[in-house]
Design goal:
This is Glycoside-hydrolase family GH114 TIM-barrel domain-containing protein. By secondary structure, the chain is of the alpha/beta class. The chain has helices at 99-105, 135-155, 177-193, 207-214, 230-237, 255-260, and strands spanning 33-35, 44-46, 54-57, 70-74, 84-89, 120-121, 124-128, 159-162, 197-200, 218-222, 241-246, 267-271, 285-287. It is globular and about 50 Å long. It starts with 32 loop residues before the first strand and ends with a strand.
């Protein structure tokens, strides 16, 4: 899902260096230094501390509740002090507030239908799907995403959550999983070059390929318990899986049922769907 704030800014003026091969690091139960495997000069990468007490703050950034050791915030926010921070970037779709920018200046980088109009995400109708179908387009898109990724590093985040890896499933056949994995590899290279761990988001069924071919360091899931996908991530990433369940979709009973289950990741949190702050009456937060 996309946050309420902007993540992808104006295009960076430099292109990213592309390396051709990598292998995934094995799953870890505690943060350890990791060296990037791309051809770009790499900084040390620190993995998320797991198991962790996670808070998911995309709709609003606020002082984390007592005991929280891991938080995700949007790339336009600043990290919470004293804990591990993951930076959210909508890597495979556009942001609503950049609608005109993409239509007027970057339309050739959007997936279009037979009518020539950009294809939208039906669940997020203000988001266009980025066209990752060619190497040239992937390189240009990665240069645009680089602004947000660099901002994450400069502000002190330690990890990246790259959303919408599964955009190919909404592309009406214009994209394939291979296209998106190839693009994800460019983002992984840039993240590791800046010393950022990078997480797989969505497409649980291709986790093995995502780990081995892209080199994702961890998985960040939404509702993997509700949709019975947690095992697909855990089989590949071990303890390095973080999951957020939502109050409006608990098909197997209350959140306490989720926490009692051995099928959930050790790091599992409950949030309200809109991810509002504590001053909003709709705010909900709990963790296992």
């Amino acid at each position: 899902m996309a946050p309420l704030t902007s993540v992808l800014g104006k295009a960076a003026v430099t292109s990213l260096v592309v390396a051709l091969c990598t292998t995934g690091a094995s799953a870890q139960a505690a943060p350890q230094p990791l060296v990037a495997d791309s051809g770009i000069a790499a900084a040390a990468v620190q993995l998320p501390p797991v198991p962790a007490v996670l808070d998911y703050q995309l709709g609003a950034a606020y002082t984390p509740p007592a005991g929280v050791t891991l938080v995700t915030r949007d790339s336009t926010a600043t990290p919470a002090p004293g804990i591990y921070n993951i930076c959210y970037v909508n890597g495979f779709q556009t942001q609503p507030e950049e609608h005109d920018l993409w239509l007027n200046q970057r339309k050739d980088l959007l997936v279009t239908g037979s009518n020539g109009k950009p294809i939208i995400d039906p669940e997020w109708p203000d988001e266009f799907i980025l066209d990752t179908s060619t190497a040239a387009k992937r390189t240009r898109l990665a240069a645009i995403a680089d602004e947000a990724i660099t901002r994450c590093s400069q502000r002190g985040f330690k990890g990246l959550e790259i959303d919408n890896l599964d955009s190919y499933s909404r592309s009406k056949g214009k994209l394939t999983v291979d296209h998106n994995l190839a693009y994800a590899k460019l983002l992984q290279q840039r993240a590791h070059a800046l010393g950022l761990a990078i997480g797989q988001k969505n497409s649980a069924e291709v986790s093995r390929r995502a780990r081995n071919e892209v080199g994702f360091d961890f998985a960040f899931a939404e509702e993997c318990f509700a949709y019975e996908e947690c095992g697909d991530y855990s089989d590949v990433y071990g303890a390095l899986v973080m999951d957020v369940e939502y109050t409006d979709n608990l098909p197997k009973g209350p959140f306490s049922t989720v926490c009692r289950s051995s099928d959930r990741p050790a790091t599992t949190t409950l949030r309200d769907r809109q991810l509002v702050g504590p001053n909003n009456g709709a705010y909900r937060y709990d963790h296992c």
